[in-house]
């Protein structure tokens, strides 16, 4: 379902640059993707009350439906940094516009990392001074790598749509329960679509993918998903484009879930026979986010009762009747009829993908959400992140 | 505030029994507290949709305002166990009524432990057959110990009110975000109060204590807090009783928080200057429940930006203006003015109690909630609980 044999190279007309701006000790931490011709753009952002200046600025720039460049600073979110933080984000956008030769208003900026620390502007300025002569020859893999924080691997995906391609790069590991979007995911295509069509396609693709992902219930202040289309390959079939786009977003979502901080397994929860989509998603998220379900999945512990608990804690869903609910792990039914032998359940839970399927008996709606197990690795990573 | 020099012995007229009913390999796992005379009773229960037969039965019995005995089965929640589970809970209540010589309708039953496994009724029956001759001479500490599952220590508290005493026993470590109540807490007093007064006092005491506690956002299917008053010591001043009762509940709440699964620290979050109490509590719970805040507290990592993130994820609280919010750790202000030196913050975070104080600037309401850090110990305990 998520495979495509197309080579992982930028769509026609897109180029990229990565460099080391001193945000971390070593390795590239600044990346820029740019279209060599005008492009339509659409983007969705975090709804956090503490959205940072990068999100505020990008939201304003995306409004025109025209976007040509995306810059990412990794390791520092530039959030809760006051007026200085706003000025710094604006200065980075200005420098990128100069570097890439595009209007300032066509630049999107993403910042990801620790909250509440000022950007190291002196090393960033020195970097842009030196970058003026640098070639735009970075690959999608190099860009995805330069965007990483505690990610253990770069996330990229590619899909073909008729004569066009869609390429996506993403990052995100913790503080990861996207609300309107996920951490950072940039999708570029040489298909020709106008801004309204692009916006509609992006929103349709985001709900069942990035917005159905949760690693730890913590919503980032910096989430951004953007889609740029420069038309270099000409028009494509809209339905085919939508399918490819949603499929590519799902591919990236699964990569994000599998690389959740400390994760060793993908956890997929499907709720069906629900009153409406919102109820299905709410119950599914309760299960995928339950620390007790996540730790049981981590330990391949056949403690299925925790799934029932996680459904039950939605105390406002009073139309759910416990006697009409069913729960399955993969193809092993566990409730209401407990398996007499737990061995097949343990075997199933030892796999690197665990599927939980729930029917609520309150209607016909359905939702699937994605997450991961909770391991001691999550604690190790997060008990000592800034220091 | 939470100290009382009164000896930890039952109030006049209360007696208790503990024994081994085969629910776990060794150690007492059944406990009964009984009043030797009629007593008024009040109780609050979990609102989980999957509340077990113990809760259903107890809720019915509490309705009369008369309660004389409380039985607890530890290690098995008897939840999601179908009609057999209901019959088993009823049989235990019947046996306890016989054993304690009280009407069946005056018995409350609590069950705590794994969900979805049938009670081992043959060993439980054998236990009650043998118990008929056993003395009711268990101490509050012995009862609290017999109620434990993954608790590392028994939780007890005592307060004096004029001529009367209130004694409380509690258990609860994980699956712990009480909704209408906490895991299991039984409070008995020889003060004389009628059922309506008792009910009002209990509800007032529970909101700022047990209902302000969260270890892991997972709401149990079995939460129960009950208060029995047998009047043996005569009437007391109602205001003084309320103060002592709330104080005793807070004492038990702090014991529960400190003994959260894998916990090494108490985390206390106070939100003030909020629009209303509900907003204050919602924001405080977002912070106390954030895995990223909890892991930072565990590692004494001065990553205060995560508190700002946890406030910001309440995307419906649109009246919160980030520029009017303030955050302190103990007496160290961190937002909006970041401390230039993080050392005092680290020192503060290394203590075994970490206090976070937030002002929202949206009104004058306040709430305090209690929780704990998130450690690798939580993962160890929960990745391998049933097996």
TrEMBL record, chains A, B:
Catalytic activity, EC: 2.3.1.35, 2.3.1.1
Reaction it catalyzes: L-glutamate + acetyl-CoA = N-acetyl-L-glutamate + CoA + H(+); N(2)-acetyl-L-ornithine + L-glutamate = N-acetyl-L-glutamate + L-ornithine
Residue(s) at site: Involved in the stabilization of negative charge on the oxyanion by the formation of the oxyanion hole: 112-113
Top-rank taxon: Bacteria
Gene Ontology biological process terms, A to Z: L-arginine biosynthetic process; ornithine biosynthetic process
Keywords recorded for this protein, A-Z: Acyltransferase, Amino-acid biosynthesis, Arginine biosynthesis, Autocatalytic cleavage, Cytoplasm, Multifunctional enzyme, Transferase
Residues involved in substrate binding: 149, 171, 182, 261, 382, 387
Enzyme category, top tier: transferase
Main location: cytoplasm
InterPro entries xrefs: Arg_biosynth_ArgJ (IPR002813), ArgJ-like_dom_sf (IPR016117), ArgJ_beta_C (IPR042195)
Pathway this chain belongs to: Amino-acid biosynthesis; L-arginine biosynthesis; N(2)-acetyl-L-ornithine from L-glutamate: step 1/4; Amino-acid biosynthesis; L-arginine biosynthesis; L-ornithine and N-acetyl-L-glutamate from L-glutamate and N(2)-acetyl-L-ornithine (cyclic): step 1/1
Stored NCBIfam families: ArgJ, PRK05388.1
Function: Catalyzes two activities which are involved in the cyclic version of arginine biosynthesis: the synthesis of N-acetylglutamate from glutamate and acetyl-CoA as the acetyl donor, and of ornithine by transacetylation between N(2)-acetylornithine and glutamate.
Subunit architecture: Heterotetramer of two alpha and two beta chains.
Protein name listed in UniProt: Arginine biosynthesis bifunctional protein ArgJ
Organism encoding this protein: Streptomyces smaragdinus
